[in-house]
Amino acid sequence: MLDFTSSSYLGMDHAMAALQPWSRLSSGRPVALGMPKLERRVAGELAELVGSPGALLGPSTLHLFWDLFGLLATTRVAIYLDAGAYPIARWGVERARVSGALVRVFRHHDPASLEQRLARDEHLLRRPIVVTDGLCPGCGTVAPLPEYHDLSRRAGGRLIIDDTQALGLLGRDPSPDRRPYGAGGGGSIRFCGVSGPEVIVISSLAKGFGVPVAMIAGSRELIAWFERKSETRVHCSAPSRASLQGARHALSVNRADGEARRSYLVSLVRHFRRRLGSVGVGVGPGLLPVQTLVLKPEGFALAVQRLLLERGVRAVLQKGRCGAGPQITFLITAQHWAGDIDRAVRLLADALKQACTQTQPAETAHAYAPL
After folding, report:
1. 230 with 295, same domain?
2. Residue 297: CB atoms within 10 Å
3. Which helix (H) or strand (E) holds 314?
4. What does the pLDDT look like over 293-348, one tens digit per residue?
5. Is 15 left (phi over 0), alpha (psi -120 to 50) or beta?
6. Helix 61-72 vs helix 220-229: crossing angle, to nearest 10
7. pTM over the 0.90 mark
8. Is the domain of 94 the same as that of 153?
9. Is residue 4 assigned to a domain?
10. CA–CA separation, 118 vs 297, rounded Å?
């Protein structure tokens, strides 16, 4: 089976033999009673990687978003949510909403829509909180973070970024031809050159770094406040020793081999796009490893997905929050080979031809098209 459903973009494996041993998975104590030295060291390395003064770890982004939005809702805030935001951040926003926060939704990746919303609510005298993904997994594009940051800062607010998709993948000083992902793997704020005490980043390491643990990064004041007030740090288990050792190993691999992995990944994505072009299949813009086809009508996409599975190709069928209709997405990782790409595209072309023959002519006029 050719699998294009994993978002472990850098292909990092953390076999037990590669990690330092641990005597037990958990101390049994809430982290509020004392943070292990390893956890503090990993948090410090992550803060440096993303370019923030401080960071803390959590078992998952759900824990961190739950805490953060619960704390923010104790003050007069208005939350402005990008329409394409991932569900985990949305669940945190819902907690704030039921606690009295005002919540507005603006158009996906549209600074003008955000600006209009902010202007309309200016008389409410609430501190604005702008919430977005750094890298949208639906359309595979980076949010306009400089514009969002400027708008939130001028209004005296904050910018909260779910950077789960971008951490480990994107980084500083991108170059369209030579280094389209940038360097270092520090995520979307490094990629976009965004920084400041108004910026808060929450990210899982489960994508680019392949480790089931999460972090929150921001100003020293924000991190100290979060550490004092966090509920999940009192009532939930801390990250396991295995996860901490995995995070430590991932950061070491990133320092030693991250640039080579990102470069190889770019070459695979370019190869994938060339092969799709050679068989006349349209694909969305950009070189990020989230490569999406748009298939119309809805039944056609479902048919293609079924035919791909019959041929031994697994891709992601989704109804994107930021796009119309069903989408089939190929997630490319550094564990793939050029031969995997060649075979997958051949089988995709076969599946499309068979799907067209099984669909009414009127429905196949625009069977697949670029985003």
Report:
1. no
2. 17
3. strand 313-314
4. 867 665 688 899 999 999 999 999 887 666 667 789 999 999 999 999 999 999 99
5. beta
6. 90
7. yes
8. yes
9. no
10. 37
